[in-house]
Amino acid sequence: MKALIYHGPGRRSWEEAPAPRVIEPTDAVVRVDAVTICGTDLHILKGDVPTVAPGTILGHEAVGTVTAAGGSVGIVKPGDRVLVSCISACGRCRYCRVGMFGQCLGGGGWILGHRVNGTQAEYVRVPFADTSTHPLPDGVTDEAALMLADILPTAYEVGVLNGRVQPGDTVVIVGAGPIGLAAITTARLFTPSHIVAVDPAPARLEAAKRLGADLVVGAGDDPAGAIAELTRGLGADVAIEAVGLPETFELCTRLVRPGGHVANIGVHGAPATLHLEDLWIRDLTITTGLVDTYATPTLLDMIAAGRLDPGTFITHRFALDDMAAAYETFADPTATGALKVVLARG
Could you tell me if 313 and 268 lie in one domain? Predict the structure, then answer.
């Protein structure tokens, strides 16, 4: 089969690789019908995730068809169309028992495209198939379901729920890439009074307005001044960091009001300064997190019911063999306007 293989920082190739097979009785093999690229994949290629070994197949998001299943797999079977979650869960450990699947101690967590071969391939082996895939109803398209593999549950759980967005809040989202846009979409479920998007790219700010941002702040603008004017000097109730840079995290801590919440989603490859000399007196709550995907069934129900339309995040479509072109497009959003790219089997 063909797969996108990581060969160390800055090096990747779409090349022949051994086809996966069932190894453990809890495994399934899934034919990849649709796959996407995540900002985390770009972080890996930058060298920000040194735990990824050269030779690993990248990718942790896919929709596909089960082709084989181990003897202990009881929920999915060959022929089933499934969402492959970015998080694998053993279902038995201390963390899985309380829904913290991202912290799985039994061999799961974020492993696909990280510690084991991932989804940017023609086929993928999915460990713990019963607890790491979601059977898809006929009315949900591959493209819509694909947005549930990572960006929607990540934005919802790590951003909106961890940030405790409430009706009437002012929510500022720093970073209007795919995760930030998903945070706008899912924050709207809680009817905040204002959603503010901060990003230097005009195309992403246009997308933010289209998806429900009430105010956008671009390059050369003053985000602190805009938030102060909007909130009569108080600051935002919730600031969601969706970039992963020291300066964007520190900006969030400046934009939030005393007693507010800073919810960090971004993947950080460098230290950020926590200015406790200023923050200690402001009663802030700062949260971090890896998505657990406990909300995926709820979000899937909302898509099936027509309450969410995640297809609006998709800007570019490619054949699965066009992996190199898809990466080049996704990695240069300023020039291409890319938000989410989808690669589908022909």
Answer: no
> What residues contact residue 8 under an 8 Å CB cut-off, 6+ apart?
54
| CA–CA gap between residue 13 and residue 2 (Å, rounded) | 10
- 144-192 pLDDT tens trace: 999 999 999 999 999 999 999 999 999 999 999 999 999 999 999 999 9
243 and 301 together in one domain: no
Closest CA to 2 of 332, 341, 320, 343: 320
User: Residue type for 132, please?
Assistant: S
Q: In the chain, helix, strand, coil percent, each to 5?
A: 30, 25, 45
Distance between CA atoms of 114 and 112, rounded to whole angstroms? 5
Domains held by the chain: number = 2
DSSP 97: G
Mean pLDDT over residues 199-216, rounded? Answer: 95
Q: How far apart are CA 72 and CA 23, in angstroms?
A: 12
CA 104 to chain centre: 18
On whether both 188 and 313 belong to a single domain, the answer is: no
pLDDT digit string, tens, across residues 68-92: 999 999 999 999 999 999 999 999 9
Identify whether residues 91 and 61 lie together within a single domain: yes
- Residues 175 and 337: beta-carbon distance below 8 Å: no
Parent domain of 133:
2-150+292-344
264 and 189 in a common domain: yes
Q: Are residues 230 and 331 in the same domain?
A: no
Q: Considering only CA atoms, which of 38, 150, 28 is closest in space to residue 86? A: 150
Please check whether residue 87 is in contact with residue 132, taking contact to mean a CB–CB distance below 8 angstroms. Answer: yes
Placement of tokens 């690229």 in the chain: 37
Beta bridge partners of 265: none
Give CA–CA dist 256/132, Å, rounded. 36
| Boundary-marking domain end, from 287, 314, 333 | 287
